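Request: When convenient, would you put together a sequence paired with its structure tokens?
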Amino acid sequence: MLLTIRESQMDVLRIDRARRFEIQLLQILKAEYPGWKESYTERSLADLMHEAIVAARIMGVTWETELADFVGLYFEIGPGFQQHALVQAVFNDSSVAVNRKIETMFAKFTRGDWEVIRLEAKEPDRSAGAASN
């Protein structure tokens, strides 16, 4: 007997895995940022996390570890950090695999670089109905 899995069944599995990843990542965010209740409701925290995941996926990030790091930067450095010229230089560097971009930034950037990125990060346009605080 040969088991055949249809594409629609694979889609259900992918959606379930993504949902479980987001639930787990939300728990990690709550643990890593114990003061989150001062700035966010549970819903707005989840919405901002989802916004960060979408931004990472738009940039080609697919590995869960890199997605989690991207989300962490979104919260620590600020939404829009990925638009900064230093970050863009890494994401535009074809010699660095797309799922190694965040790892490369951690290795390459100094604390001073991250501070400049944080100070100059542009907030994303949320006028299209994305999450807001």
About this structure: The first helix runs from residue 7 to 32.
